[in-house]
TrEMBL record:
The modification N6-(pyridoxal phosphate)lysine is found at residue 222. GO terms for biological process: L-histidine biosynthetic process. It holds the Pfam family Aminotran_1_2. Belongs to the class-II pyridoxal-phosphate-dependent aminotransferase family. Histidinol-phosphate aminotransferase subfamily. Its cofactor is pyridoxal 5'-phosphate. Residues 17-26 have a biased composition (Basic and acidic residues). One of its GO terms (molecular function) is pyridoxal phosphate binding. It comes from Haloplanus aerogenes. Its EC number is 2.6.1.9. This is Histidinol-phosphate aminotransferase. It catalyses: L-histidinol phosphate + 2-oxoglutarate = 3-(imidazol-4-yl)-2-oxopropyl phosphate + L-glutamate.
Length: 355
């Protein structure tokens, strides 16, 4: 017996871990600079680490209230109803929950190309099909309503990523409104704001007051530095609360993760430092890399380097891990995450040497 045929899907290959690369290079992992997964170089808030330690003795029991507490706190944060917040195991989990709630077999999604691969994977897991809208390099990967609408053909779900991974380009609020106005009311517009803490642009969450075919995704993996704990959420219309109760995997967002997220939300100073460092590093990368780069609203910069695989391998040998964007269909580009004020200049020097 064999599993069903998913051979059209490329397996999700996360960037290599620092430990693995360090072992191969015979280096101390602490001497490596990992700028391949858009993580927070400052790590989690100390308050989140304390919450993890406090919660550790209780992991032997199923949690009761942690994810409800987190939903309520987020509702307060975003000035919406608690029923609008779907706490999920990472933003990936939110993508899956929406697939579960909205896709019937054969329904199609519309996703960006290049773009985050999990949109299509989740759709396929749920027996959906995938169409794409192309973001073109010739157009600086501009995220314009026309690009989406030219490709749109009544799909059940349309994904928008802003800031976009891996390009950093953004949709303006006007663009999102235009799309919400233009698609069918049976099309769910999913606005993925995984990197939104790093941009100056406002969240689309308040547009939920006006549209009931909109979902906004956020995560604690990026600016909150909790990637290893898998906590994200969607903000959705209040009337979908019943669907959440039905699609929610029991205890999927862990007690430890939710408690850490609750603590992280209270640490504004850590978030401010994180965002300030990332904006500084983003400008530094753009100003100092000897390669064409694109404007980015995220904590990373896309750079055109010729042979991305060769450049990524060369920098890795020097202890700097960057993302070769071949798997995004951009074999000439690398994506470099924002490091600290110490690691970023060193990484730039290494990358420039490899060009
Ligand atoms: N959306 C985008 C655009 C991403 O880049 C990522 C992480 N790579 C996610 C969602 C998922 O994030 P997580 O599941 O860690 O919350």
């Amino acid at each position: 017996m064999q599993p069903r045929d998913l051979s059209d899907l490329s397996p999700y290959v996360p960037g290599r871990g620092a430990e693995e690369v360090a072992r191969e290079l015979g280096m101390d992992p602490d001497d490596l600079t990992k700028l391949s997964s858009n993580e927070n170089p400052h790590g989690p808030s100390p308050a989140a680490v304390a919450a993890i330690q406090e919660t550790a003795p209780r992991v032997g029991v199923y949690p009761k209230a942690s994810h409800t507490d987190l939903g309520e706190k987020l509702a307060n944060h975003w000035d919406c109803a608690p029923e609008q917040v779907w706490v999920t195991p990472g933003a990936d989990g939110a993508i899956d929950y929406l697939s579960r709630a909205f896709l019937d077999p054969g329904d199609r999604i519309l996703a960006p190309e290049p773009g985050f691969s999990y949109y299509r994977m989740s759709a396929r897991y749920h027996h959906g099909d995938v169409a794409t809208y192309e973001l073109s390099k010739a157009d600086d990967f501009a995220q314009a309503p026309a690009t989406v609408l030219d490709a749109y053909d009544g799909e059940r779900m349309v994904y928008l990523t802003t800031p976009h991974n891996p390009t950093g380009a953004e949709f303006s609020r006007e663009a999102i409104v235009e799309l919400a106005e233009s698609v069918s009311e049976d099309t769910l517009l999913v606005v993925d704001e995984a990197y939104a803490e790093y941009t100056e642009a406002p969240s689309a969450i308040d547009l939920l007051d006006d549209y009931d075919n909109l979902a906004v995704l956020r995560t604690f993996s990026k600016a909150y530095g909790l990637a290893g704990l898998r906590v994200g959420y969607g903000v959705v219309p209040e009337s979908w609360a019943d669907a959440y109760a039905r699609v929610n995997t029991p205890f999927a967002a862990s007690e430890v993760g939710c408690r850490a997220a609750l603590a992280a939300l209270d640490d504004d100073d850590h978030l401010d430092t994180t965002v300030e460092t990332a904006r500084w590093a983003r400008a530094y990368l753009r100003d100092n890399l000897d390669a064409p780069t694109w404007e980015s609203g995220g904590n990373f910069v896309l750079a055109e380097v010729g042979d991305a695989s060769a450049v990524a391998e060369a920098t890795q040998r020097q202890g700097v891990i960057v993302r070769d964007c071949s798997s995004f269909g951009l074999p000439e580009c690398i994506r470099v995450s924002c490091g600290t004020r110490e690691t970023t200049p060193r990484a730039v020097e290494t990358i420039n040497d490899a060009l």
